[in-house]
Amino acid sequence: MLLNKPAKQARTREALLMKYIFFNHPLFKNYRDNIIELPESPQQFLLPADSEDKLVTLEGGDIMVISPEHVLIGVSERTSMEAAHIAIKTLFEKNVVKKISVIKIPKKRDYMHIDTIFTQVKKTCG
Description:
- With 126 residues, the chain is of the alpha/beta class.
- The chain is 21% helix and 17% strand.
- The protein has helices at residues 12-24, 81-93, and strands at residues 2-3, 36-37, 63-67, 70-75, 99-104.
- The model has no long low-confidence stretch (mean pLDDT 83).
- The protein is globular, with a radius of gyration of 15 Å.
- A three-stranded mixed sheet has the order 3-4-5, with helices on one face. Strands 1-2 form a two-stranded parallel sheet.
- Helix 1 links the parallel strand 1 (2-3) and strand 2 (36-37).
């Protein structure tokens, strides 16, 4: 489970609720060691207002697991390159995946997240 900070302040409550549920609900008790939380930079408050790429914001629509060992991360209007770098470093350090592909997405509402651009199709055998 990857916990992160959303780009839009309106979604902060949602992120806090999910964090509370994952760490406190008995349903997730056996998975607490699998929770990965992306930290903010301690100096984030010092950054100029126009340095959006240095903010640590990542939204679930920009993460796509395409196989058990391969993840796509979209860098978009709502997921910063800084968050992608931290996620990559953390996922490799924890041996969660073996391959990560970063997809740069235009910062337009039409392409809000990676899941608005790509649709995963199941491969059928036979």
